# Entry
Amino acid sequence: MKKTIWAPVCISAAILFAACGGGEEKKTEEKSEETPVVVDDSMVAPTAGKGKELIAAQDCKTCHQEDAKLIGPSYNEIAAKYENNDENIATLAGKVIKGGAGNWGEIPMAPHPAIPEEDAKEMVKYILSVGK
# Structure
């Protein structure tokens, strides 16, 4: 009699298990890896975004404004004085990091040694692109 009770229960469990998808391996779709799009922006003017954001995160506006002289020259004056080329970008980035004096009067520019060189270059690229 025990066998008669367990047989329908086991069969029902097996049917329920099969109906719910138990025991089947689920196939996952493999996503094909797409080749990333590489954009050559070497001929594009530097974007204001990164350099402008980096400047906003520093204390630059204490001494500089885009179009008016404060303690130091305006970005427009700097852009007018220096040609936008790799040599000037490197020189001016060095002045941002190390500070400097004598190019714009007697008031020295404070050094910013915590700014990484690449960030300083992005900042200078933005400054040299202002007003042009």
Observations:
- Residues 51-129 form a domain with the Cytochrome Bc1 Complex; Chain D, domain 2 fold (CATH 1.10.760.10).
